[in-house]
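#structure-requests
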Amino acid sequence: MRRVLDGHLPYPALIADTHGVLVEANAAFALFAEDTAAELLREPVNVFRLALHPDGLARRVLNLPEWGRHVTEALRARARLSPDPELHALVTELESYLPAAEPGPGHLGFAVPPHLRTGDGDLSLITTVRLVIVTDSGAPVDGPFRKRARQGTARRLDRRSAVPSRTG
Protein backbone atom coordinates (compact mmCIF):
# COMPACT_ATOMS: atom_id res chain seq x y z
CA MET A 1 0.00 0.00 0.00
CA ARG A 2 2.95 2.30 0.64
CA ARG A 3 3.85 2.25 -3.06
CA VAL A 4 0.29 3.13 -4.02
CA LEU A 5 0.26 6.09 -1.62
CA ASP A 6 3.67 7.31 -2.74
CA GLY A 7 2.58 6.90 -6.36
CA HIS A 8 0.11 9.73 -5.81
CA LEU A 9 2.89 12.20 -4.94
CA PRO A 10 3.01 15.18 -5.20
CA TYR A 11 -0.69 14.91 -4.32
CA PRO A 12 -1.95 13.90 -0.88
CA ALA A 13 -3.23 10.36 -0.46
CA LEU A 14 -4.27 8.45 2.63
CA ILE A 15 -5.82 5.25 3.90
CA ALA A 16 -8.33 5.43 6.72
CA ASP A 17 -10.47 2.80 8.36
CA THR A 18 -14.28 2.74 8.25
CA HIS A 19 -14.53 5.31 11.02
CA GLY A 20 -11.99 7.65 9.46
CA VAL A 21 -9.02 6.76 11.64
CA LEU A 22 -5.83 7.42 9.70
CA VAL A 23 -3.96 4.22 8.92
CA GLU A 24 -1.30 5.49 6.51
CA ALA A 25 -0.61 8.59 4.42
CA ASN A 26 1.97 9.88 2.01
CA ALA A 27 4.22 12.88 2.66
CA ALA A 28 1.87 15.30 0.90
CA PHE A 29 -0.72 14.65 3.64
CA ALA A 30 1.09 17.47 5.48
CA LEU A 31 -0.95 19.83 3.28
CA PHE A 32 -4.05 18.78 5.23
CA ALA A 33 -2.34 19.31 8.57
CA GLU A 34 -1.20 22.90 7.90
CA ASP A 35 -2.63 25.41 10.38
CA THR A 36 -4.77 22.83 12.19
CA ALA A 37 -5.21 22.53 15.93
CA ALA A 38 -2.69 20.18 17.55
CA GLU A 39 -5.41 18.12 19.25
CA LEU A 40 -6.81 17.12 15.85
CA LEU A 41 -3.40 15.65 14.95
CA ARG A 42 -3.02 13.51 18.07
CA GLU A 43 -3.29 9.77 17.48
CA PRO A 44 -5.60 8.29 16.59
CA VAL A 45 -6.14 10.97 13.92
CA ASN A 46 -9.66 10.96 12.50
CA VAL A 47 -9.40 12.33 8.96
CA PHE A 48 -13.11 13.21 8.75
CA ARG A 49 -12.84 15.25 11.94
CA LEU A 50 -9.57 16.79 10.75
CA ALA A 51 -11.28 17.80 7.49
CA LEU A 52 -14.54 19.21 8.87
CA HIS A 53 -13.71 20.52 12.36
CA PRO A 54 -13.65 24.34 12.54
CA ASP A 55 -10.07 24.20 13.90
CA GLY A 56 -8.97 21.80 11.17
CA LEU A 57 -8.85 21.85 7.41
CA ALA A 58 -12.39 23.28 7.28
CA ARG A 59 -11.19 26.85 7.81
CA ARG A 60 -9.28 26.59 4.51
CA VAL A 61 -12.01 24.84 2.48
CA LEU A 62 -13.60 27.56 0.36
CA ASN A 63 -16.71 25.50 -0.46
CA LEU A 64 -17.12 23.95 3.01
CA PRO A 65 -20.95 23.94 3.12
CA GLU A 66 -21.23 21.96 -0.12
CA TRP A 67 -18.17 19.75 0.26
CA GLY A 68 -18.80 19.06 3.95
CA ARG A 69 -22.37 17.96 3.23
CA HIS A 70 -21.06 15.77 0.42
CA VAL A 71 -18.73 14.03 2.91
CA THR A 72 -21.37 13.61 5.63
CA GLU A 73 -24.02 12.38 3.15
CA ALA A 74 -21.61 9.70 1.90
CA LEU A 75 -20.89 8.63 5.48
CA ARG A 76 -24.59 8.60 6.37
CA ALA A 77 -25.29 6.41 3.31
CA ARG A 78 -22.56 4.01 4.47
CA ALA A 79 -24.09 3.94 7.96
CA ARG A 80 -27.51 3.08 6.48
CA LEU A 81 -26.04 0.09 4.64
CA SER A 82 -24.18 -1.21 7.69
CA PRO A 83 -25.75 0.21 10.84
CA ASP A 84 -22.96 1.23 13.17
CA PRO A 85 -23.62 3.35 16.29
CA GLU A 86 -20.04 4.68 16.29
CA LEU A 87 -20.30 5.81 12.66
CA HIS A 88 -23.74 7.33 13.29
CA ALA A 89 -22.35 9.33 16.24
CA LEU A 90 -19.41 10.51 14.12
CA VAL A 91 -21.73 11.69 11.32
CA THR A 92 -23.87 13.57 13.84
CA GLU A 93 -20.75 15.23 15.26
CA LEU A 94 -19.42 16.16 11.83
CA GLU A 95 -22.76 17.61 10.73
CA SER A 96 -22.74 19.87 13.78
CA TYR A 97 -19.60 21.57 12.43
CA LEU A 98 -21.14 22.50 9.08
CA PRO A 99 -23.05 25.62 8.11
CA ALA A 100 -26.39 25.19 6.39
CA ALA A 101 -26.09 24.59 2.67
CA GLU A 102 -28.59 24.53 -0.15
CA PRO A 103 -27.31 22.80 -3.27
CA GLY A 104 -26.84 25.29 -6.10
CA PRO A 105 -27.71 24.76 -9.76
CA GLY A 106 -24.27 23.23 -10.50
CA HIS A 107 -24.50 20.66 -7.67
CA LEU A 108 -23.83 17.15 -8.96
CA GLY A 109 -24.17 15.35 -5.63
CA PHE A 110 -21.82 12.50 -6.39
CA ALA A 111 -18.80 14.71 -7.13
CA VAL A 112 -18.05 17.78 -5.04
CA PRO A 113 -14.33 18.61 -5.14
CA PRO A 114 -12.98 20.54 -2.15
CA HIS A 115 -11.53 23.94 -3.02
CA LEU A 116 -8.65 24.46 -0.63
CA ARG A 117 -6.84 27.70 0.22
CA THR A 118 -3.08 27.21 0.65
CA GLY A 119 -0.09 29.50 1.04
CA ASP A 120 0.76 28.77 -2.59
CA GLY A 121 -2.72 29.55 -3.94
CA ASP A 122 -6.07 27.85 -4.16
CA LEU A 123 -6.35 24.17 -5.09
CA SER A 124 -9.26 22.17 -6.38
CA LEU A 125 -8.83 18.54 -5.38
CA ILE A 126 -10.48 15.35 -6.50
CA THR A 127 -11.45 13.02 -3.69
CA THR A 128 -12.32 9.37 -3.96
CA VAL A 129 -13.54 7.01 -1.33
CA ARG A 130 -13.00 3.35 -2.03
CA LEU A 131 -13.73 0.46 0.25
CA VAL A 132 -11.10 -2.23 0.00
CA ILE A 133 -11.31 -5.33 2.12
CA VAL A 134 -8.03 -7.01 2.90
CA THR A 135 -7.74 -10.73 3.59
CA ASP A 136 -5.71 -12.24 6.41
CA SER A 137 -2.85 -12.67 3.95
CA GLY A 138 -2.88 -8.94 3.15
CA ALA A 139 -4.32 -9.33 -0.35
CA PRO A 140 -7.08 -6.87 -1.33
CA VAL A 141 -10.48 -8.34 -2.17
CA ASP A 142 -12.75 -6.62 -4.66
CA GLY A 143 -15.79 -7.15 -6.85
CA PRO A 144 -17.94 -10.26 -6.39
CA PHE A 145 -15.53 -11.70 -3.85
CA ARG A 146 -16.07 -8.83 -1.39
CA LYS A 147 -19.32 -10.22 0.05
CA ARG A 148 -17.82 -13.69 0.48
CA ALA A 149 -14.74 -12.21 2.15
CA ARG A 150 -16.92 -10.29 4.61
CA GLN A 151 -18.98 -13.39 5.36
CA GLY A 152 -15.79 -15.40 5.90
CA THR A 153 -14.47 -12.75 8.27
CA ALA A 154 -17.73 -12.79 10.21
CA ARG A 155 -17.60 -16.59 10.50
CA ARG A 156 -13.97 -16.45 11.67
CA LEU A 157 -14.84 -13.83 14.28
CA ASP A 158 -17.84 -15.82 15.52
CA ARG A 159 -15.71 -18.95 15.82
CA ARG A 160 -12.94 -17.13 17.67
CA SER A 161 -15.26 -14.90 19.73
CA ALA A 162 -12.75 -12.15 19.33
CA VAL A 163 -12.72 -8.66 17.92
CA PRO A 164 -9.98 -7.94 15.40
CA SER A 165 -7.43 -5.42 16.61
CA ARG A 166 -5.47 -2.87 14.66
CA THR A 167 -1.78 -3.68 14.33
CA GLY A 168 1.08 -1.44 13.43
